[in-house]
Amino acid sequence: MYENYYGLNARPFLLSPDPKFFFASNHHQRALSYLQYGLDQGEGFIVITGPIGTGKTTIARNLLSNLGDESIVAAQLVTTKLDPHELLELIAAEFQLDVVSKSKAEILQVIEKFLISLHKQGKRALLLVDEAQNLPAETVEELRMLSNFQLNNKPLIQSFLLGQEELKGIIQAPNMEQFRQRIIASAHLKPLSCEEVQSYIRHRLAQAGYQNEELFSENAYQLIFEKTLGVPRKINIFVDRLLLFGFLEELSVIDSKAINEVAEEMDIELTGSINARQQSGATEATQLVVNSSENVESMREVLREVEDILENSIKQKIKLSRYVDKLLKQKNIELATKNSEVSDS
């Protein structure tokens, strides 16, 4: 797509977590330091929380990719609402243990035997539980029970929990006192500041091989910060679309005009306003029944909202059509050049 146009060797703003593009803001570096400290301690729980899209999974991937310690056997879980038995089955599967058709007690025995075998080899297990806010309290408690597996007073497995802010509520419940006592460090991620947004974008572009002059205008970073609220995932979505827009429009510098135009197209993606509109529409639909005197105006408002959504969709389709046309033209030029070279030879 836009990589060749901007001299990039990769797309720098993909949503998939990639340790290569890890950016260490103050909060992210602190969280990573806590994880590394926990590894050095070899015991207890580390808890990392933060809003959606602030980079918790990226931190976990960065940690795993830079372990550099063959004595640690790591597994990462991306959970849903698992009961304790299902959690143990998933842990066993990640460590490639055969527990098919086994009871909970039997699964625990298989896991303990595996952990003891690692210990005899001078190794230990590390479990990273992503999206941990989805775990019921009794399943979090099961993780605590796993930490009781010890040999010669040394824990055989260590767990890191990464989750959204709801995880705090689970851990702070009165019946989770024993779990809280085993937490040796915790950190809460926050969105990036305006200055960090600028450094984040420049860092990712540099990692993708960008070496040209400044790609964004002077006030662009402040505007991107305002549109994305400093959330890394939203920044990735927005800047990726900005680069595509710049390629289609053949822009060498992306300025406030381009940013505002793309932001308008992506309003639904960036602000979640589609959900607000749907909820508003649902509320209005209810009001049509409850208060018939407002029927006409409510219906007009719903239709205006639908019209806005359709207009945005049409704009995006036009952009895609222009993009395809550009690719076809480029392909035709390449074919014509090749045919010319063949005829000359």
Please explain how this structure is put together:
This is AAA family ATPase. It comes from Thalassomonas actiniarum. It holds the Pfam family AAA_22. Residues 42-202 form the AAA+ ATPase domain. One of its GO terms (molecular function) is ATP hydrolysis activity. The protein is an alpha/beta fold and 345 residues long. It has two domains: 26-188, P-loop containing nucleotide triphosphate hydrolases (Rossmann fold), CATH 3.40.50.300; 194-336, no CATH class. The chain is 57% helix and 10% strand. It has helices spanning 26-41, 56-65, 84-94, 104-120, 137-146, 166-171, 177-180, 194-207, 220-228, 232-248, 256-265, 267-271, 273-290, 295-344, and strands at 45-49, 72-78, 124-130, 150-151, 154-155, 157-163, 183-188. The strands form two sheets. The protein has a five-stranded parallel β-sheet, with helices on both faces. A two-stranded antiparallel sheet has the order 4-5. Helix 3 packs across helix 5 (137-146) and helix 13 packs antiparallel against helix 14 (295-344). The longest helix is centred in the last third of the chain and has 50 residues, at 295-344. It is elongated and about 75 Å long. Mean pLDDT is 81; it is low at 272-296.
